[in-house]
Structures are given as C-alpha cells and as structure tokens.
Write a structure and sequence with these properties.
Radius of gyration: 15 Å
Mean pLDDT: 92
Strand content: under 5%
Oligomer: single chain
Structural class: mainly alpha
Number of strands: 0
C-alpha cells in the first residue's frame, strides 16, 4: 500500500487531473456516507472494507451516518449535515 500512497501523492504533486478527481469523489462519498463508494475509491478497497466491518460489524452500520473513529455523537460529517439542514429552515 505504501507504493500506492506514494504514487498517488506524486500524481497530485504533478497536477494529474485524475488524481484530484479521485480525491474529490472520495471526499464527496465520505461526506454523503456512501460506504461502498468510499471502499471502491480507496487505494486498498479490501482493507478499507475489512477495517470498517471489524470496527462496525452490525448490518445496520453498513448504512450508518458515522464511523468508528468519532462515533455518532461527534461525527464532523453528520454535524455538518445537521448545521446545513438547520440553516435551511
């Protein structure tokens, strides 16, 4: 995986458009809690899926709007969604 990270960083540094498109797509998937897209866009989909399933094993977590790092109460993405929704009221 180290070589994939280094290669991707080099592509970004060189301004390769596909590298930025991939990063932007991954960021959008993360913000929208699209787990399958996050896994598929990651540099190591199998490991990403494995870590997710190891830390959040229940079937309900496959659609969760939080991850195991911050949990549901402190998820910055969920909080951002809540703030946007409140601002639109």
């Amino acid at each position: 995986i180290t070589y994939k990270i280094a290669a991707h960083a080099a592509d970004l540094a060189k301004g390769h458009p596909a590298a930025k498109v991939r990063d932007d797509a991954l960021s959008r998937a993360r913000f929208e809690f699209r787990w399958e897209d996050q896994f598929n866009l990651s540099l190591d989909p199998e490991t990403a899926r494995s870590f997710h399933d190891e830390t959040l094993p229940k079937e309900a977590h496959k659609l969760a709007h939080f991850c195991s790092m911050c949990g549901p109460k402190f998820c910055s993405m969920r909080i951002s969604h809540d703030i946007r929704a409140e601002a639109q009221k």
